[in-house]
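pasting for ref. prot 1 ->
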Amino acid sequence: MTDIHEPLPAHSATPYLETLNESQRSAVEQLDGPVLVLAGAGTGKTRVLTTRLAHLLMLGKAQPWEILCVTFTNKAAREMRERVAQLLGYENEGWWVGTFHAQGARILRNHAEAVGLRSTFSIIDTDDQIRLVKQILAANSVDEKNCPPRMMSNLIQRWKDRGLPPEKVAGTEGSEHADGMAPTIYAQYQERLSTLNAADFGDLLMLNLTLFQNEPEILAKYQKKFRYILVDEYQDTNVSQYLWLRLLAQGHSNICCVGDDDQAIYSWRGAEVGNILRFEDDFPGAQTVRLERNYRSTPNILAAASGLISHNEGRLGKTLWTDINEGEKVRVHGVWDGEEEARYIGSEIESLHSKGHNLNEIAVLVRVGFQTREFEDRLITLALPYRVLGGMRFYERAEIRDAVAYLRVIAQPDDDLALERIINVPKRGIGQATVQTMHQFARAENISLYTAILRLLETDEIRAATRKKLRGLMDDFDRWRGQLNTMRHPELAETVLDESGYTAMWQDKARSDKSPDAVGRLDNLKELIAALEDFENMTGFLEHVSLVMDNEEKGDDDKVTLMTLHGAKGLEFDTVFLPGWEEGLFPHQRALDESGTAGLEEERRLGYVGITRARARSTISFAANRRIYNQWKSAIPSRFIDELPPETVSVESASGLYGSYRGGGRHNSNARYDRGNLYRDKLPNSAFQESFDTPSQSFDVGERVFHQKFGYGEILHIDGNKLEVAFEKASTKKVMDSFVEKA
């Protein structure tokens, strides 16, 4: 029997279509058959998706419960429901609008028994996953040092993202993990979940795939139920999500996927840009609609971004345009080092703010989280409020708080709060009961926790094994404190982190968790060591940290936004600063080393996302020298700068324009990048050209030299290309010979 769908009660006309441009309207009105909507940045993607959903309901093509609409966030799902309700003029019940995981869980609840669960199954979080994996590793006598539970859990989740249950994991896959037992561990993990009547997030779709493949009548039910499928951010789908959608769409083939291959930047989360690139092959007869009219940015910003992304070969292609006035060119600004970069951007923000520019409409977008530290320090100096989106402020991060706590105890042994924070970090077998005993004794004697520990070590109040651990820690603090006056404070901090085992703890965690957040913890610690170089001594640094931490969030919500490029997708600002566009930092060397051309193209997409966040002003900056992890390095401008169309940008330095810019060249992404020659003909008479061309100088002990940052000084010692210089205004520093010149 044929289903009859009456139009929902609504207005006879469709005035909401009149607000759409030609391409948007085409995307909305092509209701039947597979449709791919390539929605460029700022082209009204959400409007198209919500209007299409409302149009289906308005025309009576389907009831609300017959449309599956999949988003990537709960926020996006709520926004879509609200917008559709506004268009229709009333609320609807029975929505199937939500995230992949939410929709998968909903189906799984109805058919849990078919995959070995009960409908009341629990959904466990990441901590529970790791704890369960840890138990299974122990049961199989697998050493956690060789196979950390987090790493094994991540491997299991990657298999699930690819739609692979244990029986489909190839025999040799994962053989380097868990003494070659990774597939066995995975199988036991799934068995244990079944026994617990539980599922993890990866199961919510993978078990759906198992359900649909093993129970064709259930699949047919949902294929018939969902007459139309709408998918947001299709470029971010992983293999499991892709397979799930394909199975459901085989019923009516009325699937509409909205996305932008040029904004596919989440491969590290399992996203497969190939899903959107092969849409037309997966769904024969598919119509592709390109949304190219941008409502956000000026022509120069769009042209710069389009010119950059055109160097990617793995893309479907589109050209963004706008009828907004031409606006400012994208500025490319060169500076001497990272500190000058922070000063330059800070002064630009201060100038804009003084002219009435809203701080909420200003963003600094960095490639790696540790880059925010210099900008935070500068904004605090300028008394400009800021927020760090997608993460905590630099000195609020757990690893930074821990490291600073070690330094606080060295400088001030009676700092109980600092000592308690790190007394068992990394783990030393000093439990909460022991800490309570120490606190009780300290309060009774009216002494500090540190002094209480020293006294308790002479008694039997604490178990012998714990006393041994505590004595070792106290001896360490005593030794480090003695080195305060004999060792440079950045070197001492590095020594403390290494000898305490704190660095090794994060190295282990970084090896077991390949996400940028986990790897970034070590980067942040290295940036902390670098930050110490800016202070005369440890006391000065700790005072600075106290002032930073005292800079509490004020009620005024007008703040500059600091965040990573990955976190900025979907946001927009009037003014955007893009610092650190240098080879190795952006594109990031790790992406190039691990993924080659694919990694380079994803980095380029990140650049495209960054530029297109700006409505009116976009400034790219790079430094001739960059101190990364407390090591000064000559920095080379990013190849991405060379790929910007010359007519869309103006190239500057702190001393003014460098003159005509002749970028826009295409590089062979498979060839070795010619860093040395890139800017010789583009930045005449610049400090950058000098840094490339000036031959190394020879120096003698006692010779007077000049450093761009530290000023004048006298060479005390020479070790290869490293100089120890007593600077007149910056104490004694170790510098590279290429960074100084004879005075």
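and prot 2 ->
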Amino acid sequence: MRKIFTRFYLVLLLLCSLAHAQGLIYYNAFSNGESTWRNFDDQLSNVRIENGKYYLTHKQHISSVVAQAVPVDFSRNFAIQTTMSHVAGGTNFPAGLTFFGLDALNTYYFCITATGSFQVGKFDHGQTSALINWTTSPAILQGNAPNKLRIEKLQDRNKFYINGVQVAELAPLQPFGNHFGPVVMEQQTAAFDYIKLAYLAPANQAATNVPPVSAQIVQTVYHTDFNADDNNQWVLPPTDSLTTTLTDGYFKMVRLAKSGYNLSVTGANLKVDMHRDYLIETQAVHYSGAQNYGYGLSFACDEQRVYHFWIGASGYYYIGSANKNGFNTILTWTPSDVINKGDLARNKLGILHKNGQLNFYINDQLVTSHPDIEFTGYRFGVSVSANQNIGFNYLTFGYLDKPSATRVVATQNDVTPPEIFITSPETTRGLKVVQSSDVLHVAGIAKDPSGIFSVVVNGIQAVVDKNGSFTVDVPMAIGENPLLVVATDNNMNKGQQRFSVTRNNVAASTVAAVTQTAAQGKFYALLIGVQDYRDQSIPSLEGPVGDATTLSQALTNNYTFNNETITLLKNPTRAQFFAALDEIAAKVKPEDNLLIFYAGHGYYDESHLQGYWYPADAIRTRRDTWISNADLIDYITAIKSKHTLLISDACFSGSIFKTRAIEMAPKDVQELYKLPSRKAMTSGAMKEVPDKSVFMQYLIKRLNENTDKFLPSEQLFASFKAAVINNSPNGQVPQFGEIREAGDEGGDFIFIKKD
């Protein structure tokens, strides 16, 4: 993508008065006939003000910026802010704010894409350089949704926010000038609601002006100060791993076990409507124990699944769910300076559901947002993991809106379960279906006068619309698969529908087709183990070389790899690593498949938002001796294989993903093999992993025990993810997903069993 500004440039000197509002430098809401921003149309760009929005269209494969000069005092702290929406054109193209600009060839920019990525960069004498590489963020609302961009210029750093969530931070930037405005790159149209610049209040003043999130509550449904127990029975029977008490207005949870977690939630009789706008809030104190494990709020709990919003006393927060198979990460452990750290620290946690979004607050500061989740549970409470002593001094649930006049109000007198009608698959003949696919698409309608709260099929939540129509994809094993559909209405009554599906073995025609296609290409592997480091400040490891060797044996013994197509590197230098990649790149053809494996030390640099691997000659204090994710992605993108799979057993290896996790794809083997893929499988997300690798233990075990002719990497990963979570000493959560911007088109790497 070319990121070059056009020579067109608007400069209007504005004389702004601080009389408009305290600290306000400049504000323009793009009102028709009142804005100093003008309309124009030429061969490169079209700009118009319409209905209170500033529409900027770029027509060619370069970029346009419209900026105005604003008299701002750079010795003070200030912020620039806008709300923008992608309107039309390429969804992968950037749009956003330019700031600290002098002219078209000298300016900074902060841009996002409609597909969920952001970048910070600059044009210096017309040369483009990235200050922060393209990074995906769950804070970005994708598609045509509006996104609020904010840049804070501080004395000691610059902070970048999307929808109230800080996504990046940089050291102080040297301004080119005082021009600010919108920018659109490539062929697309974006709409901007306003441009605002304001001086920031001193930190101590700003903190006192933050309104409590609970001020938005219209109706309090439940509140306890934990001075006494109630019908929800917060105090649990003591066990070897947990003791709970109500003491001095605190609900105290003392855990002794070093793994696992405990929670205490509301009783079944307290039924809240989690389809409305609501807030769940508590305040917790960390008395003692492990500081790098979670504690906090649990919500949407039922017998199938529990969702967690946790913080750690070391200054991180986490969002995810847990069921009988293990944890599913929504947002991996993320640092935040709004968390009060250490023992005896108190932190307020809030989950606010509003306008189809889940917003997560710490100490009344929004830290992240996530699109609404279709969950079945309605119970909520508090939880503690690992060996920690935590106290909670209140718990509140309140609605932020009034009940809709058109909504059926829940009543305790309704005991009639909802009706369920299955529309796909066809089940009229004995409620039994035969198919060969490994995924079953289930669709139907659930009906009840009070409305449908949720539909679950074999423990998997379905997508349900307002009319009760639902769809869900369910994995199928070879043989008979009983299915249970459970629909819950808004009064928490449950209805059930049962049927079964028999999955046959993969058809002989499919086996022949995939085998014939795969036979046209080779299976290459580059296996790297680094455990002996020359820099004495980097501790040596014991397992990586042995793990790489064991993986090589599993591939050659069981699958269509051979010794000639496998390159095994033991303790390579940085130069040897890239030389091996160059050699493989010269061999691999478009019909070939490539597996890259790395075991060794990893590092994540928060200041550069970049992950790295350490080769054997890495110097801990010199980044230029490391191997960055960006370097690796460039190689993976350039190697024109049919499929490339990266497996990384290193700390902080999850930073390479376009997405944190990927759902089971409802495609057959033929389709998966036909479409190109660039996937990655890592032993953890953004935390340290142990030297003795539980991840490798179960990866090799599943590869050796597999009996299927075709094993997609996604299916391989799903077969051992839970085992890693349940058996790792630090609760590590392995990850699987697409490698960002590397050419993935939805296919998968298929391990083909030798005959």
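The chain is about 10% helix and 45% strand.
The two ends are 45 Å apart (CA to CA).
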